[in-house]
Amino acid sequence: MSADQMSIGELLAATVPMVRTLNLEYLETTAERAVLRLPDQPEYHNHVGGPHAGAMFTLAESASGAVVLAAFGDQLSRSVPLPVKAETSYKKLAKGVLTATATLGRPVADVVEELDAGQRPEFPVTVAIQRADGAVTGEMHIIWTLRPNS
Questions:
Q1: Statement: residue 110 has pLDDT above 90
Q2: Cα gap 150→140, rounded to integer Å
Q3: Where is the signal peptide (predicted)?
Q4: Is 97 in a helix, a strand, or coil?
């Protein structure tokens, strides 16, 4: 299967080995938002019986990567998407299945326009992590860039 035929989830699992470890489920991927689910897996629990902070970080970062690929996948021949900075806040006790919703923070056209001008554009992605009852258990704010190929 070529990269053009793969879903965003399949592409991430094929190219980023860490993504495969958590059995993430890709529920939605568009150029504006991506929604991923982390199943409740005891082997990734922490000392209080919920998902480990590292698993939550990977869930959120993977959701951000999914929206970035959905938005800028057509730019991969001339640039590499890279996270620049990430800040994570853990707000409430996380238990059970978690869902991460990532939202692109700039219009795609504005970012591509900067890339066309020879710049290295940066853009924010925000991610909310929720447990099954809807409570937000964590948030991530991540800055991504499209590094032009030399």
A1: yes
A2: 30
A3: none
A4: coil
Q: What value does the CA radius of gyration of the chain take, rounded to a whole number of Å? A: 15
Instruction: Quick: pLDDT tens for 15-67.
Output: 888 878 899 999 999 999 999 999 999 999 999 999 999 999 999 999 999 99
List, in order, residues 6 or more apart from 129 with CB less than 8 Å away.
Answer: 56, 59, 60, 94, 98, 99, 100, 136, 137, 138, 139, 140
Looking up tokens 């000392």 gives 47
Residue 134 main-chain phi, psi, to 5 deg: 95, -10
Do the beta carbons of residue 85 and residue 126 sit within 8 Å?
no
Q: Which domains does the chain have, with CATH numbers?
A: 8-148 (3.10.129.10)
Predicted TM-score (pTM) of the model is: 0.92
* CB count in 10 Å sphere of residue 45: 14
Instruction: Check residue 16 and give its pLDDT.
Output: 81
Assign 3-state DSSP to the chain and report helix, strand, coil percentages, each to 5.
30, 35, 30
pLDDT of residue 10: 84
For 134, residues 6+ apart whose C-beta sits below 8 A from its C-beta are none
